[in-house]
Amino acid sequence: MAVPTDPSIEEEEEEHEHDGPTHHPSAPSHEFFDLSTTVDPSYIISLIRKLLPLDSASVNGVVSVDINRESVTDSKEEDAPSVSKSKSENMDVDVSCESSHARGECQDTGDGIEHSGVSVCEDVWEECGCVLWDLAASKTHAELMVENLILEVLLANLIVCKSVRVTEIIIGIIGNLACHEVPMKHIVSTKGLIEIIVEKLFMEDPQCLCETCRLLTVGLQSGESIKWAEALQSEQILCQILWIAENTLNLQLLEKCVGLILAILESQQNVLDDLLPCMMKLGLASILINLLTFEISKLKNDRIPERYSILDLILRAIEGLSVIDEHSQEICSNKELFHLVCDLVKFPDKVEVGNCCVTAAVLIANILSDVADCASEISQDWRLLGGLLDIFPFASDDLEARNAVWNVLARILVRIHETEMNPSSLCHFVSVLVRRIDLIEDELLNQQCVDSSPGSTTDARNTSLMRITSIVNQWTTVKEDPENNGNAEVLVSETDLKKLLDCCHKFSK
């Protein structure tokens, strides 16, 4: 949203008033922040003044904020792309509660915001707040806001406000401010602010909960993560986070809540030590597995793109838990989980859920590292073998994931006893390999471009190639037997068969 220097903004045509979304997305990533426009700092300050609750001087000792608008000079500022939309795209922010109050149109309802019969003052507050929500995405604007006490103003509003929409806007503004280092330091140093934000986890409004989870996630990913973790460490709060994840039907809220759990799991060790033991005691592992079960069942029955990102976050959270020594066994020993991720790898249409399948393959590798016997269970599943090979293109930029796939392949292939297999089963395995010769060759070429590779990964890749060669050679012997001639259930191209053998010999070390 481009904000003019004049605080008065032209109204759009009436038919566009309802085009905007009913909630506000996260701050855009930093690469968008270099779009410049002219924003008068005094305009930003005038918006902050309009957010002052009438009784802010007496609310729990919060002192009335005295903002000297005349002390700020005009300057050019960076402006981020629009993050939020209020009820109309352009807003008349020149309307003030003071003028309405002078006309006798506003009454104080006790929630810190004056109201008229049509909530004139709350509408003005919302409009001004939405502009600040947008502007807070810019580092320059965000720093100007905290210098001019926007956090004190927002805290005063949080204390007295009963409007869920106003609460959403307040937390949204703070969420965008928190994306910048200097404003984040102001947030954590504002006494009582983090605590009152955490309390909003007990609201029932999905949009408020979404913004609260987003803000907490940003906090845990920042350099101030310890202070945010301290505010979350009570069992009641952690139980509420898990309850939301387990029970909400709102897809956006589920995504934000699982994202918050993932942020905890990916935090520094001090945060994990503070939060994870209690979360595990409250059933984190089983909740994540239950969520995964539901999402995979939805994936098999309904193609809902909005759910794909949720599935990915759940898988990443489980994968993160699988590498934490104190808790990995609870994940890796779960048979239901193992079958779920194997089913996902075998999912035929990977274009839509490629990233999810990559994470599933890494999770399988982690499980097999802890519970080696599981490899025997899947060694005869040629569909799983094909699914693993199909993952390579989706992991082309992720060396760790590609190495994980090779490790899983090696563990499976060494357990295939081709000399003991019946011709039909052997034919299926060879067909799976031959049909993916191009994927195998491209992956080997990509791997060759990597300057160095861990020894265990090189061993896994070489083991896989040698085992593929042995399986293909056994098939060549079997199909030449007159008793088996013409009995193959699947046609195998002789040209591709030779190409596969040549590829294996070329890249074996």
From TrEMBL:
Q: Annotated region Disordered: where?
A: 1-33, 71-92
UniProt entry keywords in alphabetical sequence: Nucleus
The family assignment reads: Belongs to the SAAL1 family.
Give the UniProt subcellular location, in the record's own words. Nucleus
Species of origin? Trifolium subterraneum
Task: Give a GO cellular-component term.
Answer: nucleus
Q: Which SUPFAM superfamilies match?
A: ARM repeat
Its main subcellular localisation, reduced to a broad class, is: nucleus
InterPro entries of this UniProt entry? ARM-like, ARM-type_fold, Synovial_Prolif_Regulator
Protein name per the record: Protein saal1
